[in-house]
Amino acid sequence: MKSLRILALGFPHLPTDRIARSKWGPSWRSTGRPEGPAIACVGRHDNTLRLTALDEQADAIGLRRHQGLTEARALYPQLEIFEEYPAKDRELLCAIADWCDRYTPLVAEDGKDGLFLDITGCTHLFGGEEALLHDILSRLFRMGFDVRGAIASSPALAWAAAHFGRGGVIDHEQGRDVLLPLPIQALRLETQLVSSLSKLGLKRIRDLAAAPRAPLARRFGVKLMQRLDQALGYEEEPISPRRPIASLSAERRLAEPIASEEDILHVAGRLAASLKPGLEARGAGGRLFELVLFRVDGKVLRLAVGASQPLRDPQRISRLFSERLAAVHDDLDAGFGFEILRLNVLNHEDFNARQGDFAGKGESETSLPDFIDKVAARLGPDCLNGFVLRESHIPEKAVLTVPATHHVGSGKSADAALPVTDRPLRLLKRPEPMEAFTSEVPDGPPGSFRWRRALHRTARSEGPERIEPEWWNSLEGERVRDYFRVEDEQGYRFWIYREGFYGSHPPPRWFVHGLFA
Fold first, then answer.
1. What is the torsional sign of CA 379, 380, 381, 386?
2. Phi-psi region of 230 (alpha: psi -120 to 50; beta: other; left: phi over 0)
3. What is the DSSP letter of 244?
4. What's the rounded Cα separation, in Å, for the pair 160 and 139?
5. How far apart are the C-alpha atoms of 38 and 285, rounded to whole Å?
6. Which among 213, 215, 329, 403 has most CB atoms closer than 10 A?
7. Phi, psi of 15 (to 5 degrees)
8. Is residue 476 helix, strand or coil?
């Protein structure tokens, strides 16, 4: 684990920072806080109004989290109260996590007020670990957040140093010396367990590390020893990134921010061109692309487009984002411009290269995939649908509707699965009941039938085709079906079936299931 480097960020006043940013602007910490009373958030817990979040001024006064509101008012009558809003706090934390993607795509949430960043192998891009930590803390401070940060070789050690230590960069050899003097709460233990350990005199991690392990594990469970081993680096602790990891990625950091769609598309085309060698080396093409736009003020916008076939041509990829930008034109708020653009390949498949002809043109018959990709990029992936086969004998279950981008790219079209004469051109969404007259008993078609208030006299028929219920997947009450292809005297052709047999209980019923012409 020596090579693993984790950056832990803690936001001890995230709810009140959100309120302060809305009152005084995002740069309120840089310009200085205006004079005024302390701020606290209040929520109802245990049928009592209690303080759930405090700002620095309220902490300095001596107020405590989970303290009753009445007691807090008695100690500090001028306290400014706001109702807690956990959904907005989480939304703000997610926005900060999106902003942290500029440093590494491996960003994970840590509870309600923290983040983990796996910065292994990318610190040299920012001048080293010290420079990276200073850059992220100073930027977040200018954005109005009180933040603590630490870099260590394990998530547990980085968390402990950021929340209960001095933070900073901790080398692998220094981890034990930094961890042992910290309070027992730095191991992320439950409050009740911390209280029980304190009664035994185990108030510091050095006390716990020096105590016999077996008695502690028998009394308090293995979770206590697991937390200690994770902090010391003896046991690995995985972190789960909040977003899928891109197969390939290309990034451009701009000296001057850009805002126009033309400039965005130009940079996106350059990024797509830089991804092409990587896709060629894998023998693959991208099926799902994501363009990430980092705005100067910290907001992050994401645009995703899919392709019906694997792509690696930069011009075609750029055209897809052109359609996507046209669709979100009014919602694309560039603000003061975008300073970082990143193009991710979220999904890729094997690329079937075509031999070029003498004119040097290797692609043919690409009009349909191009059309599907453009429409899907502008109107969404579900605007066009196709059909693929499903393993079922029941007609309404045998074909599945999927987005056209998957339908064309999979090559599993249902169009050529059966001869045209065997199944109707149009299958009704669900079979519709009809009245059958003068049916031939026991297995013949009706001489005439009424459907949708119209009477049809049978001129020709073909059948029956018997379809039994699927015993492994059938619902209770499903019965055997006898299908007929029927043509009436006007030349209209129907696909009808009888459910059940004559002489059985309940009596058979007739349905129209599709139309041939």
1. negative
2. alpha
3. P
4. 22
5. 56
6. 403
7. -60, -45
8. coil
Peptide bond before 241: cis, by omega within 30 degrees of 0?
no
What pLDDT was estimated at residue 413? 53
Q: Could you report the per-residue pLDDT of 251-296, keeping only the tens digit for each? A: 999 999 999 999 999 999 999 999 999 999 999 999 899 999 999 9
Q: Pairing state of beta strands 168-169 and 148-152?
A: parallel
First to last CA, the chain: 69
Q: Is 178 helix (H, G, I), strand (E, B) or coil?
A: helix
Question: How many C-alpha atoms does 132 have within 13 Å on its Cβ side?
Answer: 25
Q: Are 231 and 155 in contact (CB under 8 A)?
A: no
Joined tokens for residue 486? 């029927």
User: Collapsing DSSP states into helix, strand and coil, what is residue 211?
Assistant: coil
What is the C-alpha separation between 29 and 145, in angstroms, rounded?
A: 8
The CB density around residue 351, as the number of other CB atoms within 10 Å, is: 17
The token pair that represents 285 in the structure block: 């093409």
- pTM given for the model: 0.75
Compute CA 108 distance to the chain's CA centroid, rounded to the nearest angstrom: 13
Written as six digits, the tokens of 89 are 């706090």
Strand partners, 9: 115, 149
Residue with tokens 């459910």: 499
Kindly give, in sequence order, each residue whose CB lies less than 8 Å from that of residue 227, ignoring residues fewer than 6 positions away: 156, 187, 188, 189
Can you tell me the distance from the alpha carbon of 497 to that of 467, in angstroms, rounded to the nearest whole number?
Answer: 10
Sheet with 300-311, strands from edge to edge, namely 248-258, 338-350, 284-295, 300-311
**196 alpha carbon, distance to own chain's centre:** 40
Q: Looking at the chain, how many residues does it have?
A: 517
Report d(CA 6, CA 153) in Å as an integer.
6
Residue 144: strand, helix, or coil: coil
Q: How far is CA 298 from CA 293, 294, 334, 398, in A?
A: 10, 7, 11, 49
pLDDT tens-digit readout, 220-230: 999 999 999 99
CA distance 265 to 319: 8
Side chain identity at 338, as an amino acid letter?
F
> For residues 473, 477, 483 and 486, what is the CA-based torsion angle, rounded to 10 degrees?
-140
CA atoms within 13 A on the CB side of 35: 0
pLDDT score recorded for residue 419 = 47
Give the residue carrying structure tokens 């012409």: 517
- Tell me which amino acid residue 67 is: Q
Judge contact between 485 and 408, C-beta under 8 A. no
Q: What is the DSSP letter of 123?
A: G
